[in-house]
Amino acid sequence: MVGNRITGLNTSLPLSSSDAVSCLRVVQLVRDSERETETKVSKSGDVMSGDLLFSAIGDDNRIIGCNDLNTNRSFSFLLGTSTNKLYFMYLPQKPVTLETEHSFLVKAGNNDVCQLGTADDSSEIVFHKVVRMNSNAITNLPIPALPHEAASKLYVDGNARKVLNGCIPPLRSLRNTV
User: Fold this and answer.
1) Where are the beta strands (DSSP E) in the chain?
2) Is the pLDDT of residue 163 over 70?
3) Greater pLDDT, 20 or 38
4) Residue 13: which domain range?
5) Residue 177, pLDDT above cutoff 60
6) Is residue 27 part of a domain?
């Protein structure tokens, strides 16, 4: 072309590899490509800042997590710190672990339902609502030390109780009697 220029080229993407495109469009495509790679998270080792939102448009279900664990491999989903996490190690009969630094509060309808662990006692479970047992038993109760603690039937049956007119001795059943 010896010093001549071509002007008025299309600024959209070329339709084939032999079509010409303007220099302005080439620069824009390169910048767009650089911007896109800066915001992508690679498959391994990247850290992302900001919000990560998933669109549910056009699909019935979204899955986040890991589904290819081998025996003795683990998967953690961190919740703010490395000590607040959902943790799973693939071992036969091993449950998913919820690990938290302080406690775990379960809410429903913005109301507290139960809290696992408290500031005073990490092994304490606090229920804020009625517990329905659905005809199931409460077992392995320790011997009560305080008046408000629950007692097993065996404990109650084995101890005399004071009533208005005196004490009732422990009652025993008379089996095999007619």
Assistant:
1) 74-81, 84-89, 97-99, 104-108, 111-116, 125-127, 161-163, 166-168
2) no
3) 20
4) 9-37
5) no
6) yes
